[in-house]
Amino acid sequence: MASIQFVKSLIQRSLCSALKQNRINFVRSASLKGIEYLKNSKINKDAAFTLEERRSLGIHGLLPSTILTQEDQLQLCKERLKTFSGDDVKKSIFLYDLQERNEKLFYKVINENLSDLLPIIYTPTINKMCNNYGLLFTQPKGLFLNNLDIGRIPEVLKNWPESDVKIVIATDGENLQPNLGDMGVNSMLFPVGKSTLYTGISGIKPHQCLPITLDVGTNNEKLLKDPSYLGLRQKRITGQTYLDFIDEVITSIINQFGQNTIIQFEGFNRENSLTFLKKYQKKCCFLIDDLQCKGAVVLAGLMASEAILNKPIKDYTMLFLGIDETTFEIANTLVKHIMEENGSNLSPEMIKNNIWMFDNDGLLTQARIEGKLFTGDKVIYAKDFEPTQNPVDVINKIKPNVLIGNSEAKTFFKPDVLYQMAEVNQKPVIFALNENSNSSFYQDIYHHTQGKAILATSSIFKPEILNKTSVPGHASSCLIYPGLTLGVMASGLKNIPDELFGVAARCIAEQVTYEDLKAGRIFPRLELLKNLSIDLATKICEYSFKEGLSTIRPEPQDKKFFIKSHLYNYEYEDILSRDLEWVEMAETSTEEVKKGKNSGKLNENFEKSVSEDETDKIEDFVDTKNEKSRKVSFDDVNIVERFPPESFKTKSEPTA
Predict the structure, then answer these.
(1) Which of 194, 410, 452, 530 is catalytic?
(2) In terms of pTM, does the model score above 0.90?
């Protein structure tokens, strides 16, 4: 009996701790009064509060008399966005103002208008906003860690109000986009935007995402002289000091939020990105989407293109225009996939013979690197071929099926190059992976290939803007990372192995329909991105359990249901019917714990479900009285061990 009482006491303390840390949504309204409900973005419904809620919560008279539904508000937001026609920056500012006021409505708007708003809440619009970040800053949406805090990073991390963080998106702002370069602390808009996409696309809860900017200075003289710049006014730190700072940040994140926390880096110097990937990939859930996800995206597009070219990828000849670390990462991803598909029939050398690379210094040949201190990938992909600085000559001789333009694509996508691709191919596959907001750049690709091109772009444009006969596919990493990370979370993985990117690419390619291919599109439509991410997360989860990588026990029988039942709810909740009973219980429990007594009401709720042999596992477990059946949550990997396999069985599946 003493053990039972001890367990109940632990439960009560856990509940009180959860209330204090704002981990339980319904309790967030417990201490609010009157107008504070309208100032809390997680609870505020604006004019959608019912009359009963307005009177009970003390906000009657603080809102106009008309009571709207969330759908009404959604339509009003759409109308408001139309008033900013032609000004994407104003649209973005309006949306982020909405987020600060009404979180549910913000994500509802994003989720139901994803294809239209994706370029507004992320690139290319935030590229335009970076230079004026100091003027746009209103309140913190993430953490700023700077090198002056070396040795105190754990203390700073504890200042973040959420403890249930599952994904950290971090940047040091050195290499955001080819046309931006070093943006220092202004780069915060990128992890904030990516955090928004995680919730808007894959339904990961907002409080589980933590955007971080690593302020290590900037070498951008314009920013250093700008009075509105909010970062450290110093040159970037480098060398061992920089590496030690990064190491402390990653170690502190893992210690603070757990080994399963996904740490996503973006916008780092390419060489640094490769260094960090090699160092941390097997030590934690480390992800660099600039390198890894982009390779998976290209692989997915090539898989889908097999049906158009009527040949397998292993028989493709590919020419990269522009060479950097991303180029080699994409190429290595393709080589690894082809080897996995063909077993011992092909050697890596045979596959690499079909991959050619060209940059401002010409074709990557053995003669070009001879006598120079090149190692690794540059040597591997160098060809025993006559040196040339004319890409048309290369296309004429090797007749590539695929042209992959990376960061320097605009430099090489000239009329003669595109014309020659159309001459040697009936359907040339062209990837334009550089960010370019000028639609004429892509129109020229169609024009100079006589409309033959199967085009995939990193930028988003409406089909009618570009070409009447073909529709460009959207080759963005946002096809990969939302679903990938959701699957990693659901599986409780401790690192992210390379094989998962092959699984992701295959899943994306399988979503391309006959209608897509007929239209010349080798990627799924953006309107399907939400469901695609859930399907991708399910595939990742299935693979993780099959390969014994998952730490979740027992294994969910219906993995898709398991994932979907714990996604963010975009709909408003009835505060009164759901919360008031819990507020009363929470207040009662808090008072009883302070007195050192047991709450009879709380004890009665748990007596039926807690046994003595669970005392060692119950510390962080908070039961929910109004749930008809227990659900497994990957919010806490360890919690899964407390549920029997029967709890995973279900007859119905909730909709996305």
Answers:
(1) 194
(2) no
